[in-house]
């Protein structure tokens, strides 16, 4: 029998929505928020950990410049004058006070005491303690060469010198030493105060002074070693005077980490090298031509270098050191892998007195234009007087050295000089291409 109503079905269902469970919904929401926070925290940690490496991948590598603070004549003389003025002012005050009260008198108590051997020993112990402290900055540099003898047996030849830790640029430990010890070697080794030995690489050297800077990757140095070594303090040697107590470190007699003590006997000597003049200090400390190292003052600051390559050392049986202040600009360039610019003259300053007595123009007198140097190639000769470089006036060797160190290999500079002829001195200009001394 047919249904009367087509809307009627055999089974008629009505689907109802499942009731919302607010408690479960809240739990799911909290869980989602928790996972989001956790994900953000982990992402932050991963980003922070990987950021330095990512930056090294995509950012250009920029080495941190190693700066060596330069020195000027200290305020010792000014300080002395100030102190004298203060003493004079105190004396005047005292004099005025004495006028007001003539009955009041100042009594000075003095006691003369002769030093005993124990007193000398105390002084010596203090000097040796300074040496022991600075020795943390001293290393042994070994140049290693390998070969085969006539019996086809391999052998290893080494040469040694002392070195000085001068800087730490976060990536490298920089060490100052002599180039002749590591010249043409297969490998370079550096031994620290705790006998830990690591391989080093040559960063740059100066063919003029013979000094070189080595680098040791910081990541290769054990933490225990880093805790025992220190970076040396390069002091101001421009005001050094005779009679000052000094300590010689390194290998003044051929054995590294030695400590010798003595006094400065002279500060008036100079040594003339190519493009530079240096002040040298003589001491009463016995040394030999095979020794090298550093000279330290009583503040534990390095004030001089004594070098195997120095000609003056071979003529002395006492230690002679080059002023550290006059080497700082060279050391800074070498520490940053920069070549030392070279023109190739040996000169001296024409002072007012010399100019007046010998009728020579003021400037830099060329005592020698070194054979095959850029200076000789450009036409400069012995007897010429340099008065300007690139239109910048030159009155002394200091001026010449300062201008030269701003130049780079390959730069072409205009040097103005005076040359003597039958009619007197005549000015001329030549072009010099700056080189590098090897």
How would you describe the overall organization of this protein?
- The strands form 4 sheets. The chain has a 6-stranded antiparallel β-barrel with strand order 1-2-3-6-5-4.
- It has 438 residues and is an alpha+beta fold.
- Strand 18 (412-421) and strand 19 (424-433) form a beta hairpin.
- The protein is built from 10 helices and 20 strands.
Question: Layout of helices and strands, plus pairs?
Answer:
Layout: H1 22-58, H2 76-100, H3 117-134, E1 138-148, E2 154-168, E3 172-178, H4 179-182, E4 187-191, E5 197-205, E6 211-217, H5 223-226, E7 245-251, E8 258-273, E9 276-286, E10 292-296, E11 302-306, H6 311-314, E12 318-323, H7 328-335, E13 341-342, E14 345-350, H8 352-358, E15 363-369, H9 374-378, E16 385-389, E17 392-393, H10 397-404, E18 412-421, E19 424-433, E20 435-436
Antiparallel strand pairs: 1-2, 1-4, 2-3, 3-6, 4-5, 5-6, 7-8, 7-10, 8-9, 9-12, 10-11, 11-12, 13-20, 14-15, 15-16, 16-17, 16-18, 18-19
């Amino acid at each position: 029998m047919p249904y009367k109503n087509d809307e009627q079905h055999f089974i008629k269902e009505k689907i109802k929505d499942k009731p919302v469970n607010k408690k479960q919904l809240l739990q799911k929401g909290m869980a989602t928020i928790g996972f989001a926070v956790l994900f953000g925290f982990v992402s932050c940690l991963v980003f922070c950990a990987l950021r330095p490496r990512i930056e090294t991948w995509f950012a250009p590598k920029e080495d941190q410049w190693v700066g060596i603070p330069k020195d000027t004549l200290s305020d010792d003389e000014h300080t002395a004058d100030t102190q004298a003025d203060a003493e004079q002012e105190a004396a005047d005050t005292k004099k005025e006070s004495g006028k007001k009260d003539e009955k009041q008198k100042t009594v000075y108590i003095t006691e003369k005491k002769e030093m005993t051997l124990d007193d000398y020993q105390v002084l010596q112990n203090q000097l040796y303690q300074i040496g022991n402290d600075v020795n943390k900055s001293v290393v042994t540099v070994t140049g290693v060469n390998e070969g085969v003898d006539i019996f086809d047996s391999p052998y290893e030849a080494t040469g040694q010198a002392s070195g000085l830790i001068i800087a730490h640029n976060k990536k490298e430990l920089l060490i100052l030493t002599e180039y002749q010890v590591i010249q043409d070697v297969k490998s370079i080794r550096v031994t620290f105060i705790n006998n830990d030995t690591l391989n080093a690489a040559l960063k740059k050297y100066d063919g003029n002074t013979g000094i070189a800077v080595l680098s040791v990757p910081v990541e290769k140095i054990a933490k225990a070693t880093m805790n025992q070594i220190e970076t040396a303090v390069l002091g101001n040697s421009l005001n050094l005077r005779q009679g000052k107590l000094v300590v010689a470190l390194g290998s003044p007699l051929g054995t590294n980490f030695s400590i010798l003590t003595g006094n400065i006997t002279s500060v008036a000597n100079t040594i003339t090298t190519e493009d530079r003049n240096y002040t040298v200090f003589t001491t009463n400390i016995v040394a030999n031509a095979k020794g090298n190292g550093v000279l330290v003052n009583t503040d534990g600051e390095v004030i001089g270098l004594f070098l195997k390559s120095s000609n003056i050392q071979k003529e002395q049986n006492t230690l002679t050191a080059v002023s550290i202040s006059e080497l700082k600009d060279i050391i800074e360039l070498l520490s940053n892998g920069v070549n030392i610019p070279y023109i190739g003259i040996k000169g001296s300053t024409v002072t007012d007195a010399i100019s007046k007595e010998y009728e020579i123009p003021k400037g830099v007198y060329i005592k020698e234009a070194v054979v095959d140097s850029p200076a000789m190639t450009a036409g400069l000769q012995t007897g010429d007087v340099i008065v300007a470089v690139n239109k910048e006036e030159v009155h002394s060797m200091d001026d010449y050295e300062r201008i030269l160190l701003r130049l780079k290999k390959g730069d072409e500079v205009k040097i103005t000089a005076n040359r003597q002829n039958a009619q007197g001195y005549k000015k001329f200009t030549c072009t010099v291409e700056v080189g590098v001394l090897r």
